[in-house]
Amino acid sequence: MPEGHQSVEQQAISREFTFPGDSESIVAVRESVMTFIKENGANEGQEIDIFVALQEALANAALHGCQNDRAKTIRCWVEIDPSAFTLIIQDPGPGFDVAATTTADPSVNTTEHGRGICLMRSLMDDVSYRRGGSEVRLRKLRDFPRASS
Amino acid sequence: MLRIDIHAVHPNVTLRCSGRIVLGLEAETLRCMATSRTENCLALDLSGVRTLDAAGLGLLVELQCWATRGKKALRIVEPSACVRKLIALTNLQSVLQVACHEKLGGVEGPAGATSTMDAERTMSA
């Protein structure tokens, strides 16, 4: 490998966060995750989009996956590579009917709830669920071209 | 963190918000501050709001409904670019009374009484 060359794999960095499953705990973790993302090249627009999507995913994990129970645990993995920011949030809950959220009525929601998944899908480039809905994977592409060498 | 500055000239009041309106202390603080006002015309100045989440958007809808039920006027004025984007993404422009590039006559100005509440300070208290 030429001197100074780094492969995509070598440039990728990741970090894992593990924390209690209550809404108070997610505040500090949210700030830690965002600091990690900002330190690794997110621009202001990406930062705001990721912040909102992360906040929704963490809130859903705490309120629905953990029933706001500090004794339960939420895990969050953040992977940053030259092409994208990827966040995986996993809770110990039973999940939910993911298909129901994709077939929801697209007309305006005039209630006080039910916008979280819509926001995540609007702000991120890819949102996917695994483990029956108890794990959400958020992906935000970087908007600058990769280095050619 | 959410900071709310209150500019009141009866019967109008403007709650000038800066920071984030998100689930938890921030949203709860704005809910309490807004619903405790007795003025008939409320303006939420969101020009300094850097971001809000689904709970923040839900709170705006909740406050709009609360104002309608109480026969009060509530308007969102000067929303920041981020707030405008999120309102548009969720199609709430048809539900919320949003005024851009507009000052409410008589609401703001040096004659207005001013008080400040810092949500972060409350949280650490």
Please explain how this structure is put together.
The complex is a heterodimer of chains A (149) and B (125). With 149 residues, chain A is α+β, with helices and mostly antiparallel strands. Chain A has a single domain (11-141), classed as Heat Shock Protein 90 (2-Layer Sandwich). Helices cover 38% and strands 27% of the residues of chain A. Chain A contains five helices and five strands; from the N terminus they run H-E-H-H-E-E-H-H-E-E. Chain A has helices at residues 8-11, 23-39, 44-65, 98-102, 116-123; strands at residues 13-21, 69-80, 84-90, 126-130, 135-141. Chain A has a five-stranded antiparallel sheet with strand order 1-2-3-5-4, with helices on one face. In chain A, a hairpin with a 4-residue loop joins strand 4 (126-130) and strand 5 (135-141). Chain A starts with 7 loop residues before the first helix and ends in an 8-residue tail after the last strand. Chain B is an alpha/beta fold. Chain B has one domain: Transcription Regulator spoIIAA. Helices cover 34% and strands 34% of the residues of chain B. Chain B has helices spanning 25-35, 54-69, 81-89, 119-124; strands at residues 2-9, 12-21, 41-52, 73-77, 98-99, 113-118. A six-stranded mixed sheet of chain B has the order 5-4-3-2-1-6. In chain B, helix 1 (25-35) packs parallel to helix 2. The longest helix of chain B has 16 residues, at 54-69. Chain B is globular. The interface between A and B is medium-sized, with 23 and 23 residues.
